[in-house]
Recover the amino acids of this structure.
């Protein structure tokens, strides 16, 4: 008979590295096959229970202890853990009776995101060193690339949650922040722009119009105006050039929206779009195919967003989503249905909805304005607990989880903190960091602290004294006394009677 403990998981979960140790045990038989699926926990023990046999009295079986490393440790990831630990402790100290000010919550959210970005850059530098021959760990390149992909996903998802849930935005500013979000995480457009503009004949480059459409969708009108100067159509017909140039220049997006009412902003956009449609219907650009498509985008014409050249100019579905919102719903709010509707529409256009990746599902859930589901989904599809632990804590201080559902929100915040802290105890030198996180879990924290502190290996006298100090710091008196008794017996056995006393 074989006992199998298996948990289902999403197909698109990136599996962390597993450490496998095999121990031979005498006195039991072996047989059968064991299958195991990954679940984001810490260890799994697999073993066989054989049917008793008179012929086999002494049979060896194997016990497999599998440790699942959700965080693959290296210099950048270790730095991320240390930095985020410092930010976390500072944020908890600020939370008094009045709570943390929204501006401070935003500040720490940006610090977390900065630490994520620094981690990605550090991992990229490690790959560059391997490629240049400075480092000889060539076998780690694949693993490093997987880590870069994971932490890039975390940075993109965190940034969107920051815009939608954490930052307090004036009326009309959400679309600007979404554009900034797309620009920050898109390198492809800048690369195309440099390649095209460095050419002696930019308009002859294959990516010339693709670059223009990509820039338009990102609201980068100054770069579009500069590129159109090289268009043969605009050079031949100055009237056409002046017309499209004027429309782009007068686009309300380039003006400050702070201090204006929603009605004023709506009036400005309506007037500008009316002028765009008037010139297009007048036939100003009908003789020039690409300029006709460009003017259609400015008018918010849905057909133009489905043109092949426009679709190909977007590397991601959310780049297209933000572009469509800019020209169709520029005053969108994070609670508007159009936000979710446009996201689903663009997702269908670019992806197979039955096989969405982890990032796509998290972003779509965030755009549905469902904070709780963002945390739950991220917990199930991501391979470590760093993201959900710190994001849930930030949202808790912002008041999002509390106002959504007081009791459940508080428990959810503590649950993910406990899971993240527990994962840190499996690193030999991060157990103290884990204790700090558990100390801010009022319901379950002390129970886990007692359970974990008793399992910290006491290899040296220095580490033993550190464990005792941590026990005293958090009021774990019984555990401190127990450790002292263990050290006393060890010293007595070694003949160190002074230390034993």
């Amino acid at each position: 008979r074989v006992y199998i403990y298996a948990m289902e998981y999403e197909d698109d979960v990136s599996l962390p590295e597993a450490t496998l140790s095999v121990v031979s045990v005498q006195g039991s038989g072996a047989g059968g096959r064991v299958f195991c699926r990954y679940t984001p926990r810490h260890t799994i023990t697999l073993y066989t229970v054989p049917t008793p046999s008179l012929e086999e009295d002494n049979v060896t079986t194997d016990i497999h202890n599998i440790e699942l490393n959700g965080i693959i440790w290296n210099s950048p990831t270790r730095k991320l853990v240390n930095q985020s630990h410092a930010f976390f402790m500072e944020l908890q100290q600020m939370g008094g009776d009045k709570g943390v000010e929204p501006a401070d919550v935003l500040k720490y959210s940006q610090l977390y995101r900065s630490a994520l970005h620094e981690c990605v850059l550090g991992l990229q530098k490690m790959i560059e060193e391997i490629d240049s021959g400075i480092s000889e760990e060539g076998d780690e390149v694949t693993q490093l690339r997987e880590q870069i992909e994971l932490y890039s996903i975390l940075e993109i998802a965190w940034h969107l949650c920051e815009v939608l849930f954490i930052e307090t935005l004036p009326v009309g500013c959400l679309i600007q922040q979404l554009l900034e979000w797309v620009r920050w995480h898109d390198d492809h457009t800048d690369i195309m722009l440099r390649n095209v503009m460095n050419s002696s004949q930019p308009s002859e480059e294959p990516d010339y119009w693709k670059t223009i459409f990509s820039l338009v969708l990102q609201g980068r009108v100054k770069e579009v105006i500069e590129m159109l100067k090289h268009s043969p159509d605009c050079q031949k017909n100055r009237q056409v050039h002046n017309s499209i140039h004027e429309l782009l220049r007068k686009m309300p997006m380039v003006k400050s929206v702070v201090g204006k009412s929603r009605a004023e902003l709506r009036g400005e956009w309506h007037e500008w779009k009316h002028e765009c449609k008037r010139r297009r219907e007048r036939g100003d650009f009908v003789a020039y195919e690409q300029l006709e498509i460009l003017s259609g985008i400015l008018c918010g014409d849905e057909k133009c967003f489905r043109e092949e050249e426009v679709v190909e100019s977007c590397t991601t579905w959310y780049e297209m989503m933000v572009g469509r919102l800019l020209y169709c719903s520029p005053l969108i709010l994070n609670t508007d249905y159009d936000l979710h509707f446009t996201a689903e529409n663009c997702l269908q256009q670019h992806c197979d909805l039955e096989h969405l990746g982890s990032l796509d599902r998290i972003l779509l859930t965030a755009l549905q304005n469902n904070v709780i589901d963002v945390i739950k989904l991220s917990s199930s599809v991501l391979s470590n607990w760093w993201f959900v632990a710190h994001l849930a804590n930030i949202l808790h201080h912002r008041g999002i989880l509390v106002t959504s559902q007081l009791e459940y929100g508080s428990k959810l915040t503590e649950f993910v903190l406990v899971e993240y802290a527990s994962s840190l105890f499996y690193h030999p030198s991060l157990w103290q960091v884990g204790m700090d996180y558990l100390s801010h879990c009022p319901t379950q924290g002390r129970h886990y602290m007692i359970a974990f502190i008793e399992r910290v290996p006491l290899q040296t006298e220095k580490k033993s004294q550190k464990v005792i100090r941590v026990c005293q710091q958090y009021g774990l008196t019984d555990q401190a006394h127990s450790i002292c008794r263990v050290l006393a017996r060890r010293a007595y056995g070694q003949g160190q009677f002074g230390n034993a006393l």
The beta strands are 2-3, 17-25, 43-48, 61-69. The first helix runs from residue 75 to 94.
